[in-house]
Design goal:
single chain, 606 residues, alpha/beta, TIM Barrel, Jelly Rolls, 9-stranded mixed β-sheet, 28% strand, disordered N terminus
């Protein structure tokens, strides 16, 4: 009997079967053909003056089409001051500027994940999402998008943002339908497209499920061997009007479409809503797992933004394990599966964007996804490498094609391209330093690369152990021109108070004693404080109480907040005042209750 292979959309079905809950449907009236309200975006801060930090002697990958490489970059406050050669950037320093010698290392924009469930999945499961956020930042992702956001999840994300807990830029897509295709009501109409909800939290568009995957089966134009063509949730007329309604309200739509029948319906609906006009709304199709060849050029013809998976699930193809899955297509349809090479070739210049879809897929490490997209190889559960059959390998892309998909194209898909995605003056200083240059290493070595430093808005949010010389401390424009100094009530000899302000959560201040203990930071001069974050170091976990005192005079501090509750190691306690605190030089944290010795991994002051 002819060997058969299952479509990659199947893996999505299986992995996400328990991930996304169903909801009670609510019927919405559908409107006529839409009008065309404008779509707005905000710009990063304009900057001038001497640099706070400059990075010299590097391989700078700017991701700009006309200016792809540079030697150096200057940062001031939260934005990029300039990009150029070493002599140009060196001229921007003064006595306060921190100079980082990259010594040939590669620096590039932070990665942008156009579609994930990194935070919302944890919140759905009533779990703490902050450890996953830390992991995401360590992988070099500085901007991401959450794609299963109902009103409850939105409120939880807003609470995190207002507490200063969102350290990366988070974009949300509100549910128009749930994953079974049930309409969710008109709750989304209370919001505006491209609205900033809270610090680092932005509302971008609406999420619409057109076919099965985590609920029911993806919609195909050919029958599965067991019968049936999957589940399309709406008729073409219904989908046309859904997209038209969203567009009439000014929203971008992001349509989940796994099977080729769903892709075709989504293309038709977007074309209907646009009515021959340019896709200024940047309407998107998510996943695009199975694309019939005749559908490939229609993305560019209509102007649709395709969002595609990264690492291909080659082990299932190579080992034949796909036989145990329900949804199996014959090898004769293999060219339809994740046909990224054909998609790019059919649509030159189209901003195709990358998604991790984490945790539906097991990692959101961009370097692992880059390796998979270039080699079409995969690491098996036992650590072995699965090599792709020829028909799988045919879909591979080149490194120079994938990197823009992971940066500027994903930023474009999120209406964030004026702020992030490339390294150029005026954009946010969101950047990463890599252990090697992905454009120069052997493709098989890409998976072994790592992120050495992640900076978001000019602030180091991750610094790899042993590479502290690459990681600038808080910039003078953020906390005043002085150098912060930490003192404490007591300290172990190998865990001094200075460890709490060194930008590295792996080094800790440890008092070596139980409460009551305190640590105090002297900023060097009065400054304006917008947020304070405390990275917990604690074992065993338990109930704690911490007081936050601030002031201009160390002998006359004011209690402004008290943290009280159950904490554990690696938790983050955040405080964001309703208005910035001015004329603050000293910050003291007093721990009055703890189940362990009093210690902190890091104290961040913005």
């Amino acid at each position: 009997m002819k060997k058969r292979f299952f479509s990659l959309l199947v893996l999505l079905s299986i992995l996400s079967a328990c991930a996304l809950p169903s909801a009670t449907p609510t019927q919405n009236p559908l409107p006529p053909t839409p009008n065309f309200p404008p779509v707005q975006s905000t710009s990063a801060t304009t900057v001038s003056g001497p640099a706070d930090t400059i990075f010299l002697h590097g391989a700078i990958l700017t991701m700009q089409e006309g200016n792809p490489t540079a030697q150096a970059i200057a940062v001031r406050g939260g934005a990029i001051l300039a990009v150029g050669n070493d002599s140009e950037i060196s001229a921007l320093q003064d006595s306060r500027t921190q100079v980082i010698d990259l010594n040939g290392l590669t620096l590039m924009p932070g990665f942008v994940d156009a579609h994930s469930h990194t935070l919302n999945q944890r919140l759905l499961d009533d779990q703490d999402p902050l450890p996953d956020q830390q992991m995401t930042i360590q992988f070099g992702i500085t901007t991401e998008a959450e794609f299963f956001v109902d009103e409850s999840i939105l409120n939880k994300l807003k609470a995190l943002a207002e507490a200063g807990e969102l350290r990366m830029r988070v974009n949300v897509y509100l549910l128009y339908t749930n994953n079974c295709g049930d309409l969710m009501g008109d709750w989304w109409k209370a919001y505006q497209p491209n609205q900033q909800i809270a610090p680092n939290l932005f509302l971008r568009g609406l999420k619409i499920f057109s076919d099965g995957g985590s609920c029911k089966a993806p919609a195909m134009s050919v029958e599965y061997p067991g019968g049936g063509k999957g589940d399309l949730f709406f008729s073409q007329d219904q989908m046309n009007q859904i997209v038209a309604e969203a567009q009439a309200a000014g929203f971008q739509v992001a349509i989940h479409a796994l099977g080729d029948r769903a892709v075709e319906e989504a293309q038709n609906a977007i074309a209907f809503a646009l009515n021959g006009q340019p896709n200024t709304y940047r309407h998107r199709i998510e996943h695009n797992a199975t694309i019939r060849p005749d559908l490939l050029p229609r993305y560019g013809e209509i102007g649709i933004v395709p969002i595609i998976f990264g690492t291909y699930s080659t082990c299932i193809r190579a080992t034949g394990e796909g036989k145990k899955f329900k949804y199996i297509l014959g090898e004769e349809y293999g060219a339809w599966d994740w046909p990224w090479r054909a998609l790019a070739d059919a649509n030159p210049g189209l901003p195709i964007a990358w998604q991790s879809d984490y945790p539906i897929f097991p990692t959101n490490n961009p370097l692992y996804h880059l390796w998979g997209m270039v080699t079409r190889k995969e690491i098996n559960a036992d650590g072995s490498i699965c090599n792709p059959p020829d028909w799988v390998k045919a879909g591979a892309l080149r490194v120079e094609e994938v990197l823009p998909m992971m940066t500027r194209n994903s930023a474009y898909a999120l209406f964030f391209d004026k702020e992030v995605g490339t390294l150029e003056a005026g954009k946010f200083a969101d950047l990463v330093i890599l252990s090697d240059n992905p454009l120069q290493v052997e493709s098989d070595s890409i998976k072994d690369m790592s992120v050495l430093m992640t900076m978001i808005g000019g602030k180091v949010e991750y610094c790899a152990t042993g590479f502290e010389s690459l990681c600038p401390s808080a910039s003078p424009s953020d906390v005043g021109a002085g150098s912060p100094v930490a003192t404490a009530s007591a300290s172990l000899s190998d865990s001094p108070a200075s460890n709490a302000i060194d930008g590295n959560i792996e080094t800790i201040w440890n008092s070596g004693a139980g409460p009551e203990q305190w640590i105090q930071i002297d900023l060097g001069k009065p400054a304006t404080i917008r947020a304070i974050r405390l990275h917990v170091s604690q074992y065993p976990e338990g109930e704690t109480t911490h007081q936050l005192w601030v002031g201009a005079d160390a002998n006359n501090l004011t209690l402004i907040h008290k943290f009280s509750g159950f904490t554990r190691d690696f938790d983050i306690l955040g405080f964001t005042p309703s208005t910035p605190l001015t004329n603050i030089r000293y910050i003291r944290i007093v721990t009055t209750k703890s189940s362990s010795w009093v210690a902190w991994r890091e104290i961040e002051i913005k």
